[in-house]
Structure to design on (260 residues):
C-alpha cells in the first residue's frame, strides 16, 4: 500500500513538472466557453498540511527542492506567471481539482496549503490566493497563478508580472498594502563575504558583456559585512529571462530579483 501511495504521489509531481516544462502560450489561455464561475478570495485559516503535495524533498526536471518548514515570515519578490484552460479540471499536486476560476496558485517550496497575498508591483493591484499546487519549474518564476488571480492582477495579456508574495495567517492584523509601482528591478547574482570575490565575478560578467552591474555593501544582523553583486536595472521580464539564461550558461546559480 505504501508503495502504491508513493507511486501515485510521484505521478502527480511528474504531471506537474510536465505541465510546466511543456506549456506554451498558444496551448493555454483563458476560458474557452461556458459560464464563468465566481469565487471569493480565500481567507487565511488554520488548516493542517495537505496529505499530498508536501513530499520533502522532491525532485523535478533534475533539480531538488526543499520545502520551507513554515510559511510564517515568508516574503519574496519575483516574477509570476499563470496557467488556465489547458489544465482546468486536472488534479493539482495536492489532488485538488484545478479550477481556473478560483483564486489558487502553484509554488515550489511553500507548505500546501498556504494563503498568500500577491501584489503586482507594476500596477499596485493585489489578490489573495491559496497555494495548492507545485511549480512553476522555470528559472526566475516564483509563483504560477490561476487565470482568475492573474486577471485580477491585470497580467493575463502580458503573461507575466513582477510581484511581491507574502504569506498570510489568521492572526495577521495587516491591512492590504498599496505599494507604489516600480519600473525597474535588479538580478542579484551573488552575495560574498569577501569583496575581492565579488569584484572577480563582476569582472567576469563585464568580460562577458554584462557591464551594467552594481556592488552593494550591507551589514548582516551578526555584524558581518556582505557584498551583493546585482545586474541591472532591468525593466521587463524578457530582459530578466535573457540575462538569467546567460548567467546559467556561465555555470552560475539562478539569480533572484530585488527591488528598491
Amino acid at each position: 500500500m505504501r508503495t502504491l501511495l508513493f507511486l501515485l504521489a510521484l505521478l502527480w509531481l511528474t504531471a506537474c513538472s510536465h505541465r510546466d516544462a511543456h506549456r506554451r502560450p498558444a496551448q493555454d489561455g483563458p476560458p474557452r466557453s461556458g459560464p464563468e464561475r465566481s469565487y471569493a478570495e480565500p481567507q487565511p485559516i488554520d488548516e493542517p498540511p495537505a496529505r499530498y503535495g508536501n513530499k520533502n524533498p522532491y525532485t523535478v526536471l533534475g533539480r531538488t527542492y526543499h520545502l520551507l518548514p513554515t510559511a510564517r515570515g515568508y516574503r519574496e519578490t519575483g516574477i509570476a506567471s499563470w496557467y488556465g484552460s489547458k489544465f482546468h479540471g486536472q488534479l493539482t499536486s495536492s489532488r485538488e481539482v484545478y479550477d481556473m476560476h478560483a483564486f489558487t496558485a502553484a509554488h515550489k517550496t511553500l507548505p500546501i496549503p498556504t494563503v498568500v497575498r500577491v501584489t503586482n508591483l507594476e500596477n499596485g493591484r493585489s489578490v489573495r490566493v491559496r497555494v495548492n499546487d507545485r511549480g512553476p519549474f522555470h528559472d526566475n518564476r516564483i509563483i504560477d497563478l490561476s487565470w482568475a488571480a492573474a486577471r485580477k492582477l491585470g497580467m493575463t495579456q502580458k503573461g507575466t508580472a513582477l510581484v511581491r508574495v507574502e504569506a498570510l495567517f489568521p492572526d495577521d492584523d495587516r491591512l492590504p498594502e498599496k505599494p507604489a509601482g516600480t519600473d525597474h528591478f535588479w538580478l542579484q547574482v551573488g552575495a560574498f563575504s569577501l569583496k575581492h570575490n565579488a569584484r572577480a565575478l563582476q569582472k567576469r560578467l563585464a568580460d562577458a558583456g554584462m557591464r551594467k552591474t552594481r556592488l552593494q555593501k550591507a551589514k548582516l544582523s551578526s555584524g558581518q559585512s556582505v557584498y551583493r553583486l546585482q545586474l541591472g536595472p532591468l525593466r521587463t521580464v524578457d530582459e530578466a529571462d535573457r540575462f538569467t539564461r546567460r548567467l546559467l550558461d556561465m555555470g552560475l546559480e539562478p539569480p533572484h530579483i530585488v527591488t528598491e
Q: What stands out?
A: Helices lie at 2-22, 147-153, 195-207, 237-249. The two ends are 51 Å apart (CA to CA).
